Amino acid sequence: MTKKSPVRVKPAAAAASGCAWNLRLYVAGRTSKSVTAFENLKRICEEHLSGQYEIEIIDLIEHPQLAKGDQILALPTLVRRLPEPIKKIIGDLSNTQRVLVGLDLRPQA
Amino acid sequence: MPAAKKPSNPPGGIAKCPTGIVGLDQITNGGLPRGRPALICGGAGCGKTLLGLEFVVRGATQFDEPGVFVSFEEMSDELVDNVRSLGFDLDDLVKRKKLAMDYVRLERSEIEESGDYDLEGLFVRLNHAIDSIKAKRVVLDTIETLFSGLSNTDVLRAELRRLFRWLKDKGVTAVITAEKGEGTLTRHGIEEYVSDCVIVLDHRIHDQLSTRRLRVVKYRGSAHGTNEYPFIIDEEGISVLPVTSVGLEHAATMARISSGVARLDTMLSGRGFFRGSSILVSGTAGTGKTSLACSFARATCQNGERCLFFAFEESPAQIMRNVRSVGIDLEPFVGGGLLRFHASRPSLYGLETHLAVMHKQIDAFKPSVVIIDPVTNMMTAGLARDARSVLLRLIDYLKGLQITVFMNSLTHDGNTIEQSEVEISSLIDTWLFVRDIELGGERNRGMYILKSRGMAHSNQIREFVLGRQGIELVDVYLGPAGVLTGSARIAQAAKEHALETAGRRDLKRQQAEMLSKRKAFEAQIAALQAQILAQDQATEHLVADTQANESRGHLERRAMALSRKADSGGGRTNGKESRK
């Protein structure tokens, strides 16, 4: 992760499609939970949203003032900023089913 | 509390962080434990949020300690208004970096949980807020709501434990509020993690009257008051009033204060009540208790002293109108700031709250006389036992400050008045009793002193007359039918006056008789003296005549002898002659 600005993970294909999915992952430093969360997120996105997503990683250790805006409390937190409405999923995203439900990618079972 | 009053930390004791809340610092011997978290718990609407808010705001404004207020519940408009009315501009404090506010919202329905997480985000936010204004105080209100927002309570508990330890390490004095649970201090048992200081707030309803109370349940490493203290929330925020029986150590003064009725002062060994004593006036309805109280109030104000009048029955305007009819005008004193009325219905709130409100008013106004009219109404606001305890504490408090308290007590039955107030009689120094005296188809007022500690006082019943010029005490007549009052008294007075006049006339006549007798005697004396004089003169004449006759006889005898040429006796006579 970079030092000063949020990390943007934007696959080449997404740029063309105008990024229908804007996802933000809040973490605090490189902890095992944050690494796991990022890996899980990337995997799920590649599987379900290939080419239409953008992931922004915000390290609150670097940017603590950003926690307030998205009402971040638990970490890691994934925020779906687009498409609206805003959705939040907390945890290391190890439960794929719940992540898909949280992102509205699968009807609640 | 001014910053100068910041309590110094007792040697060996733990450091304290003053809250600036009236009374709370007194109970806790200086405030909350510095650099540690304290738990404030209580039911809904007990005032814990306001207490937390006052803690940070007063810290920022009075003690120059910036604070962070983290709210986990939406703040009610009422609370914001309340804080604004305390004269604290939150926005301005935020702008001046004295205060940081953070509202943490957690809606379970908006959040999906997937896998392992922690509350590092909260730590980050808190840390950022503390560092950005160099905060010394933190309030978390009410952190327990997290339990309803997050499903993994094991994580939550572990994280809260970590949070409180972290706050300690950070060196901030924290206030954590929590909702009261069933049979436990807090709903989720977080008192387990915050164990240095626990304060419980309570909002109790008894007989539909509410009383707020505060108690320090636990304070590790410090002495603290263990009682339940009543507190009030008003436009000045929270005031805790540690009104307790401070013991019987108040000084007794010999100074006196006039009752406002000259004749009553006379009855009280000539100089009125003792200053700082408690006075009770008992009587049935319409016996003039309020007028007596107003008379005392007027005398106090005329003396340039302040008087605080607690009216539990009538509005101030009504009292002033009514006593104006008996020549007592209190309005100028109200206008001049010497007299203050505080009127409230006894049923407005519970006894303790009444006490707290009175305490606060007395503290603010600093009167030398407090009047409670009538004190019996206060008793209807609670149980008799409670009423006695409240009165005891009030009287103790007033005595400690050398404030004279004048209470009226309404009695319902003419026969049992003394009995009905046995409960409080031991607290009273001077007990006046006004009663109706029914006689000859009239109802009149009588007054006597039931007791007056420490002074010689009259045992006489006086008639108590409310005239246009105020209160007057008049001697009553004791007739064969008992005490005479009103017209009977006037009739008796007239009778006595008539008798007196008749007597005076008699005396004059007798005096005149005596005088004339004396004159007669004097005349007799003069006549006798004249007789004596005449007799004396007659005697003198007689003596003179006799002597003249004698000498004439002698000469005649000589002439006769000469003519007879007698020698025997003549020779001797000759000799005598020659010597001549």
How are the secondary structure elements laid out?
The complex is a heterodimer of chains A (109) and B (580).
Chain A: E1 7-9, H1 12-17, E2 21-27, H2 32-48, E3 53-59, H3 66-69, E4 77-82, E5 87-90, H4 96-102
Parallel strand pairs in A: 2-3
Antiparallel strand pairs in A: 1-3, 2-4, 4-5
Chain B: E1 16-17, H1 24-27, E2 32-33, E3 37-42, H2 48-62, E4 67-71, H3 77-85, H4 90-95, E5 99-103, E6 111-113, H5 120-133, E7 137-141, H6 146-149, H7 153-170, E8 173-179, E9 197-206, E10 209-219, E11 229-234, E12 237-240, E13 256-257, H8 262-267, E14 273-274, E15 278-283, H9 289-302, E16 307-311, H10 316-324, H11 331-335, E17 339-343, H12 351-365, E18 369-373, H13 375-379, H14 384-400, E19 404-410, H15 417-420, H16 422-425, E20 430-439, E21 442-452, E22 462-467, E23 470-475, E24 477-479, E25 482-484, H17 486-564, H18 568-579
Parallel strand pairs in B: 3-8, 3-9, 4-5, 4-7, 7-8, 15-19, 15-20, 16-17, 16-18, 18-19
Antiparallel strand pairs in B: 1-2, 9-10, 10-11, 11-12, 13-14, 20-21, 21-22, 22-23, 24-25
Helix pairs in contact in B: 12-14
Q: Can you offer a commentary on this structure?
A:
The complex is a heterodimer of chains A (109) and B (580). Helix content of chain A is 31%, strand content 25%. Chain A contains 4 helices and 5 strands. The longest helix of chain A has 17 residues, at 32-48. The radius of gyration of chain A is 13 Å and the shape is globular. The N and C termini of chain A lie far apart (35 Å). Chain B has 18 helices and 25 strands. Chain B is of the alpha/beta class and 580 residues long. The termini of chain B are far apart. At the A-B interface, helix 2, strand 5 and helix 4 of A face strand 6 and helix 5 of B.
Distance between the termini of chain B: 132 Å
Globally, the shape of chain A reads globular
Oligomer: heterodimer
- The first-level CATH class name of chain A: Alpha Beta
Fraction in beta strands of chain A: 15-25%
Fourth-tier CATH superfamily name of chain A: Glutaredoxin
Kindly state the mean pLDDT of chain B as a whole number?
83
Low-confidence stretches of chain B: 1-10, 570-580
CATH architectural arrangement of chain A: 3-Layer(aba) Sandwich
Helical content of chain A stands at 25-40%
Strand adjacency order, main sheet of chain B? 5-4-7-8-3-9-10-11-12
The fraction of residues in strands of chain B falls at 15-25%
Largest sheet: number of strands, sense, barrel closure of chain A: 5 strands, mixed
Low-confidence stretches of chain A: none
Radius of gyration of chain B: 47 Å
Q: How many strand units of chain A?
A: 5
Largest sheet of chain B: 9 strands, mixed
Please tally the β strands of chain B and state the result: 25
Q: What is the general shape of chain B?
A: rod-shaped
